[in-house]
């Protein structure tokens, strides 16, 4: 009788463990896909900001900009 109970418990533990493991793998796979989408969005946003900063740097370092600033100060 004790052997039967031990076998049933062992089978139950194996089934529950395997199911939990597969659920965890599924969760991690979908979480990683969601994170990759988020990373792509952030990279695109970062590139847009880099381009804006480059344009602003061009404007500020332009010699005409300095001249306009000097006229404004007068």
Automatic annotation (TrEMBL):
The chain crosses the membrane at residues 6-24. Keywords: Membrane, Transmembrane, Transmembrane helix. This is Phage shock protein B.
């Amino acid at each position: 009788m004790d052997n039967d109970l031990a076998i049933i418990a062992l089978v139950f533990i194996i089934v529950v463990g395997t199911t939990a493991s597969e659920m965890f793998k599924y969760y991690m796979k979908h979480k990683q896909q969601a994170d990759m989408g988020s990373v792509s969005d952030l990279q695109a946003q970062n590139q847009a900001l880099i381009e804006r900063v480059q344009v602003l740097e061009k404007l500020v370092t332009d010699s005409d900009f300095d001249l306009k600033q000097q006229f404004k100060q007068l």
